[in-house]
What we know:
Elements lengths: L5 E6 L3 H9 L2 H9 L6 H20 L5 E6 L12 E7 L1 H8 L6 E6 L17 H7 L7 E4 L2 E5 L4 E4 L2 E5 L6 E7 L6 E6 L2 E4 L7 H8 L14 E5 L14 E4 L4 E6 L3 E6 L7 E4 L3 E6 L4 E4 L1
Parallel strand pairs: 1-2, 1-3, 3-4, 4-18
Antiparallel strand pairs: 5-18, 6-7, 6-17, 8-11, 8-15, 9-10, 9-14, 11-12, 12-13, 14-17, 15-16
Helix pairs in contact: 1-2, 3-5
Amino acid sequence: MSLAPRAVLVHRTTEYEELVARHGTHGQAAFFLASHGRAIDEVAERHHRAMRALAEVSAAVPLAWRRAQVERADLDRFLFAEQDVVVVVGQDGLVANVAQYVGEQPVVGIDTDPGRNPGVLVRHRSADAARLLPATLAPGAGVDELTMVEAVTDDAQCLVALNEIYLGAAGHRTARYRLGLDDDGGAVEAQASSGVLVGTGTGATGWIRSVWQERGGAGRLPGPTDDRLLWFVREAWPSPVTGTSLSGGELAAGERLSLTVESESLVAFGDGMESDALELTWGQTVRVGRCARRLRLVS
């Protein structure tokens, strides 16, 4: 007997909840903000909008379906299943956080704060959920298959991200490594920098775009479904033993950027999820390129 579909509602702790958790009560949180020239009303209203959206989406789940809820901080411990329909209720960045943990499951993005969020990935409103959820399982359901990026270490650890992968030192230390392209005849360059970013067309609406603009905006940014990736070295430092000639470029579908660690330790994490980073030690090599898996985002 096949299992009924399961709606997995993904959300994150709101700013209001974090404030109350830190200060103990609503009144103490309000006093703290007031002492800094801020009012709690706006933060509380955003919280209430998020809670109303989550409740509306939850009520829209078909009665015959199973359901689950997971908070952003618990994503790395949650087991998604093949029968899941993943519903992200929140901001664009929350969809990116979810992407590395799901497989072929359809993902629906619900915007809890229209006008404040860009809505690149959270494309729908909570009122649309009753129509969208059953439609995701219909043949020919409309989805956009978004390109993802992956980092694979020489000991077979793998990290996947929707926007970008960062490779560098934890904190603000200098990262030291040797960088090269797989199709460049084995040529590598020793570098010292603030780290390396490798991103997708979806990432080109965020961090990748900001670095691209700082570099003068040369070339065309990839779209979310394009196979091309962009990579940038951040603040490479020239010295007698480190160079800056490899500072950025594109990776086509089959190309890989190779980085060999020459620091005591570096990290690799995707889409800002530093708590779920790969730890890289001296001499270890990681290769970064397009992931064969794509995020199936309901359009």
